[in-house]
Specification:
Chain lengths: 305, 440
């Protein structure tokens, strides 16, 4: 998969540089239905702010800050300033498509950012356009609540079976031909399991599960399934399965160690430290006692004489 | 009768400097005003933050921490002079013990303040004690510095108890308050055999205790550096390297103080040419030990020139820090050793001049140890501003660095105006039992 991706990228880059450099900026060939897409939530200062954070992390290194004209000029084609007219004349759906699919040197953010995040980035980009009036999607985001996902593990075939249905008022409907992705949750981010598949006529999709995936000490793996339906939107479902190889890697901060907190300091170190301090304090006590005795002993002499 | 006369002369000689005179007031005035200027610089840092200093993300330990290491180093001389030489029974060193103790106390207590000047939020100092981790060398350092200050104070005070009594008896013209304090501090000293025994015992116990504590204070200071894996600090000999270097700086400081006291307080008969000769020899001895450690510290990694060590060492040997590095090594260490090998050069004035070179060299040596290592981080930051890469102290930073030096001198000056800097009681004791001393 990885290799294929590289190959694909290389081909794209080579073809892209040969054919498309000069027309790159205009020639996105965005399908009409994609171009007409809109965000399901309204853009406001708060979404723009969240979008800015995502933009700073993912986009600013090439595109620069919107309106500053500081995009990376060494690239070909030069990434446009996103506050500029070229970008701002596009529809929200256009920008969403461009961010999602990418082309030539613009990477695809489909698997990097969620739909929501991509829309937030657009909200941020739009915040530089005073004349912008948002068109909200007619799509009902509440519909995603109707989706019901069940997930099972088949130990014999080592497969994960996912069934996607929706509880409509008219009855249960199977979601057909929907994109479904399976992930295992990691310390940071998600690891995709198998390939992105599509549901069959019964709303069923099957993923083959690797036998060597490390789980926690009991072999538990947190699986996330993500379904993308045109009318129900993006729906995620999470469930823990005992499908991984039990792995007991104690956390580095579990035991007493030099690098741990005070409560988990090595015993020998605590004892050594306390012993030294105690030793010094007892000597100080002895000296104070001596000084006291010194003062006293003179008094006795005075009384005698 | 003759002895009585002699002891009276000694007492009045050694008490003569305990008075206010014009020279003292002028000297304190100059010190005080300069100190206030430096304190003003510190208030700017308090108001605007550590950004007013030249320290940045790369070099975050600049002049302040170099200064701290220097102060801890100089304070170590108290241990060498009172404890080591005292326990071995080297008689010539005993009149100098108090000078060494005054220097030790002044520098050790100011060292703690120097650390605070490197804190952006000094109001959070208490957190070090509340939330400190016993695993951190910084906590050990704070512990051991505090202990060392207390022991130095006790080692200064205990031999002073009989002298306080003498001060109370003889200084009848002194202000009443001063005499009352002398009386309280003398703890009813009557020179009884029992009291003498108690004092001797206590001093002995403290003299033994201060040796590991003093080694601890500077070894732990060296571990603040050596316990990280940075090129130039990652060294197993940093402890003894620091301790031996400390003796060099301390000896030089004592010699300079001796010279000052000898001429200003007219103590030619008590701080004699012999003392300068002996101190110069001691300085040569500790310098040779330090030179040996320097050879190891630079020769061994310099022979191997491992990747990151090489970057660091090239900066020192031939790069941006070469002038400072070779100056400290040659003017502050090698040349003083050679010069002091000649008998004519061990007279008071030349020894004092050489000591100034050694002490200034010692200060810059701490800078060489602390700063250059930080200019080459293992994980460089991209596109850093130029002032991250090349550390340049600002004027405010320099003033804040001078402040502790002035404060230490002020403490030393005041102490030597209220206590006899040559132990009177001990000097008289030796006069009484010349045969016993001779036999020993």
């Amino acid at each position: 998969m990885y290799k294929k991706n590289i190959g694909l990228k290389l081909t794209t880059i080579i073809l892209g540089s040969l054919l498309a450099i000069n027309v790159a900026a205009q020639n996105w060939n965005i399908p009409a239905d994609q171009s007409a897409k809109n965000s399901s939530f309204p853009f406001n200062a708060s979404t723009a702010k969240e979008g800015e954070a995502i933009f700073t992390k993912n986009c600013v290194s090439c595109h620069g800050n919107p309106g500053k004209g500081n995009s990376l000029k060494s690239l070909s084609p030069i990434p446009p300033d996103l506050a500029g007219a070229v970008t701002q004349h596009r529809t929200d759906g256009d920008i969403f498509y461009i961010i999602s699919t990418g082309r030539v040197i613009m990477p695809s953010f489909k698997d990097v950012l969620t739909d929501q995040d991509r829309w937030k980035v657009i909200s941020y980009i739009r915040s530089f356009n005073k004349d912008y009036v948002q068109v909200l999607s007619k799509f009902d985001s509440g519909k995603s609540k109707l989706v019901k996902i069940t997930m099972e593990f088949d130990a014999k075939t080592n497969q994960i079976k996912v069934l996607v249905k929706a509880n409509e008022t008219t009855g249960v409907v199977s979601l057909k031909n929907d994109e479904v992705e399976l992930f295992a949750k990691r310390y940071f981010g998600k690891l995709q399991i198998d390939k992105t598949n599509r549901t069959d006529a019964n709303g069923l999709v099957v993923f083959s599960f690797p036998k060597d995936l490390p789980g926690d000490k009991n072999g538990n793996v947190d699986l996330i399934v993500s379904v993308n339906d045109d009318s129900y939107g993006e729906v995620q479902y999470q469930k823990v399965f005992k499908v991984g190889v039990p792995t007991n890697k104690p956390s580095l901060t579990e035991k007493r160690a030099i690098w741990n907190v005070l409560a988990k300091a090595p015993v020998w170190l605590i004892l050594t430290y306390l012993f030294c301090v105690f030793l010094v304090l007892s000597v100080f006590g002895y000296i104070v006692y001596n000084l006291f005795k010194l003062n006293k002993s003179s008094d006795i002499k005075n009384l005698k004489s | 009768m003759l002895d009585q006369l002699k002891s009276d002369t000694i007492t009045s000689d050694l008490l003569r400097h305990i008075r206010l005179n014009k020279a003292f007031i002028i000297w304190m005035g100059v010190l005080g005003i300069s100190f206030l200027v430096c304190i003003y610089a510190y208030t700017i840092q308090l108001r605007d933050g550590l950004g007013v200093a030249g320290i940045r993300d790369y070099v975050s330990w600049g002049l302040y921490i170099s200064n701290f290491v220097f102060f801890v180093a100089v304070s170590l001389i108290g241990m060498l002079m009172t404890a080591v030489l005292g326990l071995i029974g080297i008689k010539w060193a005993s009149p100098l013990a108090r000078i060494a103790e005054i220097i030790a106390l002044a520098f050790a207590s100011v060292a703690g303040l120097v650390i605070i000047s490197d804190m952006g939020r000094p109001d959070r100092l208490l957190y070090v004690f509340i939330h400190g981790r016993v695993q951190s060398p910084i906590v050990w350092d704070i512990t051991v510095v505090t202990i060392y200050i207390i022991i130095s104070l006790l080692l200064l005070y205990l031999p002073l108890i009989p002298d306080f009594k003498i001060c109370y008896d003889k200084l009848e013209k002194a202000p009443k308050i001063q005499r009352t304090i002398y009386k309280i501090l003398s703890l009813n000293w009557n020179n009884t055999p029992e009291q003498q025994k108690i004092i001797k015992n206590s001093i002995r116990v403290l003299a033994i205790l201060i040796i590991p504590v003093a080694f601890g204070i500077h070894t732990v200071t060296s571990w603040l550096f050596a316990n990280t894996s940075r090129a130039g600090w990652d060294s197993t000999i940093f402890g003894p390297y620091f301790v031996s270097g400390a003796f060099v700086a301390g000896c030089a400081a004592v010699i300079i103080a001796m010279y000052f006291y000898r001429y200003n307080y007219k103590l030619k008969d008590y701080i004699t040419d012999m003392h300068f000769d002996k101190m110069a020899k001691l300085l040569v001895l500790v310098s040779l030990v330090y030179l040996y450690f320097n050879l190891n510290e630079f020769m061994v990694p310099g022979y191997k020139m491992k990747k990151f060590d090489a970057i660091h060492l090239n900066e020192l040997f031939t790069g941006a820090h070469a002038l400072l590095f070779w100056s400290t090594q040659l003017l502050g260490l090698v040349l003083p050793i050679i010069i002091l090998l000649f008998k004519q050069m061990r007279k008071p004035l030349p020894v004092m001049v050489v000591s100034i070179f050694v002490l200034v060299g010692a200060w810059f040596k701490r800078y060489i140890i602390v700063v250059p290592t930080q200019e080459h981080p293992y994980l460089p930051i991209q596109n850093v501003p130029l002032n991250f890469k090349f550390y340049t102290p600002t004027l405010i930073e320099i003033l804040i660095t001078i402040a502790p030096i002035l404060l230490a001198i002020i403490i030393i000056t005041i102490l030597s105006k209220v206590i006899p800097i040559i132990p009177i009681h001990e000097t008289l004791e030796e006069l009484e039992e010349p045969e016993k001393v001779g036999n020993k």
